[in-house]
Fold each of these.
Amino acid sequence: MFQVRIHGRGGQGVVTAAEILSVAAFGEGRQAQAFPSFGSERTGAPVVSYCRIDDKEIRTREPVMVPDAIIIQDATLINQLDLFSGLSPVGFVLINTSRTFDELGLSDLFTRFPREHLMTCPATEIALEHLGRPLPNAALLGAFAALTSEITLSAVQSAIRDHFAGAVGERNAEAAAASFDVIMKFKEEFARAATN
């Protein structure tokens, strides 16, 4: 089972991201579940959502305490909450920011997790470019597909188009593809550096 925990703030589409990811997994013939965990239900309050993906029936229903991947939609949460709690030793971290892990004060993560599993993506900027609104959730799902290879970009885009009708769905799918390309470029650069 592959378990994902998504951190963000109310109004950023944290719950929607988990739902779209689960639909993408269903689209590829897998089992999935998605559900949120709310504290204070207001715009700007910290929100967590969860997604599980497996090839067999998923019977557990509790929150994801030992995630295989963490998606952080709002980097301002980094110093407010223990976002990396329980992350698998080979886990993935994807942060919505144009800054590096060093600039975020997170260089210690490089000693705890595989370097190639830790990526940042300017998903808000990509969303602004494609949607005209700072909603990073769909863009981050494209980045997640590239980072983890747990789901395909085409499945993510199909689920996005199912969730958002018409031109909005198409623009979100384009944002996902743009983020996918950003992460693939980082992965290629990392692979080249590792061989030199």
Note: The chain has a mean pLDDT of 93.
Amino acid sequence: MSRGGESHSPCAVPVCENVPRIFSMSTLLSASELHELIFRTGHITVLDVRRPLGDRSHEDYLGGHIPLALYCDPSYQLAGVPEREVGRSPLPIIKHLQENLQGWGLRKDRPTIVYDGGDGLQAARAWWILRWAGLPDVRVLNGGLQGWRDAGYETMGGPGNHARVSDIEIDPGNLPTVGLDEVRNWPQHGILIDARTPQRYSGRDERVDLQAGHIPGAINIPERLLMGESRQIDPDHVRSVMAKHDIDDPSKVAVYSGSGLHASLFVQAMHEAGMPGASLMAGGWSQWAGDPENPIERS
């Protein structure tokens, strides 16, 4: 066990039958709130969804993770097979997602907490996928693993705890999505948001996907603008950005990014700001650009 603060053993803490409802309607929780849940109840599921460069996520997990956390490879366990027809991070195959949720022991009567390294991208995508799949209470650790360590809390090495028995049956569609056909017509009756950088939106810089530019009719609100310099979700700032673009009805909003990660964080930020209902284009620009027949705008 490596430490950033006091030492505890979650295995020695009795499990309470009723988890204290320290949560509001927020999509987030703080390191101190998670610490209390782990060491006072243990009646939660924690998923480590880090995806570092170099494909070393499992090695990093074994080297140090939050107590009780189970390992999750988000690109494999929370997504389908990447192909040009569906994008780089498509929706997962339901059968495989069901097996993974059962393998983690996720339950409807327990909160599920997800965390990444700290930028919030993988955690937001995990939050979105699990909520879309029907889990009622999914939260993102604000600041991720770095925030946990900055708060002075310990990490643990090794393979982690054994998963409990799951009672989850996937019920997909609990968060709205938008497909290619809908996206083509979306700007005619709603607002289509491209959450990528201005350089990628304009087509001046594209190093990842097959074509450069943006979907016709989309407006550019970069996810980094929505998050601000702090890289933390500020509901007032989110509402201010939405107001500048005359967005007051989230149900008329659809969001895409390159592969859906930044768009997931965008949607989560809208939820946190009290503006749920925006649709996610899960395949993102990578799906749109994968079809040479799709029209492209550059500016």
Note: Confidence is low (pLDDT under 50) at residues 1-23.
Amino acid sequence: MSESQGSEGTTQRLPVIERTADQDQLDRSASAAAYGPPPALTGEGGGEHRFWSARKVPAGITAVLLLLVAGIFLYDIAAVRAHRPAMHWRRELARQLAQRPLDDTWVLVGAGVAAALGLWLILLAVTPGLRTVLPMRRTHPDVRAGLHRDAAATVLRDRAMEVAGVQSVRVRASRAKADVRAISHFRELDDVRADLDVTLTEAIRGLGLARPPALSVHVARTTRKKG
């Protein structure tokens, strides 16, 4: 993939290198540190909110169920108006509701299910969703951009592989934190971690995110399994 680095807009193809975990064993000599997000630039951060999800599947299911229920009730009401008997299930439901007390087990279960579904729909209506898309800084008032968390993790992993002494890297990116775990096969661990700190801080800034995630770096040495 291509990555934009710095403010000059140059691009560079970066290697993607992976190594299976069962090939190496971490020793006890490890260096780890947690950092806050990079200092914000002028006019950066705080103003962009998450993208709203269309939630087509829940909306479609709800619309279909409401359409079916409304159609059945409309047909039954029209049949009663035409002097035909109401459907058996509606007569039985009305009888059960009239006879059962409010503290009946089935009444409480039905009310609980209806309340849970209602709360779920309200939660979907008031929350934006799309947690995997990170909002980017707005450079034009009419354009909004977002970066997928997997793409951000790939960029950080590729930049980390450029640091001398890094053998393999695993990156997990979320909205609030970028967790980087690197394996080093030469150089001092503290030196590798310090270089990763500088490189990844610059890389996070280069992503152009509205709210840069905090950086957590862990560097460990590998030793070959004996026997």
Note: The CA atoms of residues 109 and 115 lie 10 Å apart.
Amino acid sequence: MQTVAVLSLKGGVGKTTVVLGLASAAMRRGVRTLVVDLDPQCNATSCLEPEETTKGLSDVLADPRPEVLREAVSGSSWGEEVDVLVGSEDAESHNGHHDEEHLARLTTALSELDGLIEDGELPYQLVLLDCPPSLGRLTRSALVAADRALLVTEPTIFAVSGVQRAFEAVQAERKSTNPKLQPLGVIVNRVRPRSHEHQFRIDELRDIFGPLVLPVALPDRLAVQQAQGACMPIHQWGTPGAREVALAFNLVLARTLRAGRQRRPDEDELEEDE
């Protein structure tokens, strides 16, 4: 099971869009996926339209027992390949605790996922953690639980600053609490290829992050908002713009799954250096 935290420390750059796009690509490929909605705005939950649950994320963080987790996870309207750990608007109340016990509760809950699998069902192959745009306990809990961190940005000056801070947070969490955590890459969202400003910012990102900037960027297409408004996977929207975005998410998913199957040599070297 590959667990990926999707984050930036600037709001509105499209973290939830990336989570939903990856879930859509995974569903298309037959990869069973759990979306964990850590953002108190609950946008991922709204778009996935899960069945009604008696518990939510806030309950799981307060009490990560398997029976609580079972009541907080629901199937989505997208299909049987995508489930949701339902978001909670009151999850913001958990953002103030930073002690080790609280940070580990999401990890504890996710370790019980296999117990939710019923006879004949495939286990979860991919867990996507949709983080809020702040470095409170919710985001830190995701970084403690994740194998990889996918950093999301737009090609604008403030978004570039936000992704730099997010990368620093990933590195800090790796050193302090989660040595297996590695950056999966930086994905640039809402790119307009003919914009000189966008190209300048992408070049700036490559100067800062080098090969961590994914070679595929997400184009700025109205189809993304249309599909989300209709609570549909981008792969099922069917317009030329949707197909262009869906292809990009297919490539990002392929990179994500490859990262889960094999360790990179430089990861071993990094651990030895520590």
Note: DSSP finds twelve helices and seven strands in the chain.
